[in-house]
């Protein structure tokens, strides 16, 4: 699905923790997440820590939308 949307000229970011799977399915912009059940946080941590985790990954995802890429790219968080 990601490939079809990008063919239409709309950049897509896939946020996931299984990077090899994202590469296999053809995602071009990949942002790593924390875990499968809690991709953008960890309920065992204080709310402030969770907010920082979510903020940094969301910011990276938004910035990756404007990045000029020529191949599959995993954006560091």
Notes on the structure:
- There is one protein chain.
- With 77 residues, this protein is α/β, with parallel strands linked by helices.
- The protein has one domain.
- It contains 3 helices and 3 strands; from the N terminus they run αβαβαβ.
- The protein has helices at 2-7, 19-24, 47-65; strands at 13-16, 29-32, 73-74.
- Strands 1-2-3 form a 3-stranded parallel beta sheet.
- β2, α3 and β3 form a beta-alpha-beta unit.
- The two termini are 25 Å apart.
- 16% of the residues are buried.
- It comes from Johnsonella ignava ATCC 51276.
How many individual domains?
1
Strand ordering within the main sheet: 1-2-3
pLDDT averaged over residues: 91
Q: Any idea what the shape is?
A: elongated
What oligomeric state is this?
A: single chain
- Class by SSE composition: alpha/beta
Rg is 13 Å
Q: Number of helical segments?
A: 3
- What's the end-to-end separation, in Å? 25 Å
Q: What is the number of E strands?
A: 3
Order of helices and strands: HEHEHE
Percent range of helical residues: 40-55%
Q: Could you describe the largest sheet, including whether it forms a barrel?
A: 3 strands, parallel
Strand content: 5-15%
Low-confidence stretches: none
Q: Gist?
A:
InterPro entries: Various_sel_PB. With 77 residues, the chain is of the alpha/beta class.
Keywords:
oxidoreductase activity, acting on X-H and Y-H to form an X-Y bond, with a disulfide as acceptor; elongated; three-stranded parallel sheet
């Amino acid at each position: 699905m990601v490939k079809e949307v990008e063919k239409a000229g709309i950049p897509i970011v896939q946020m996931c923790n299984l990077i090899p799977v994202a590469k296999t399915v053809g995602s071009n912009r990949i942002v790593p997440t924390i875990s499968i059940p809690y991709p953008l946080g960890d309920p065992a941590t204080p709310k402030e820590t969770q907010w920082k985790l979510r903020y940094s990954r969301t910011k990276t995802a938004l910035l990756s939308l404007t990045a000029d890429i020529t191949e599959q790219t995993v954006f560091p968080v």
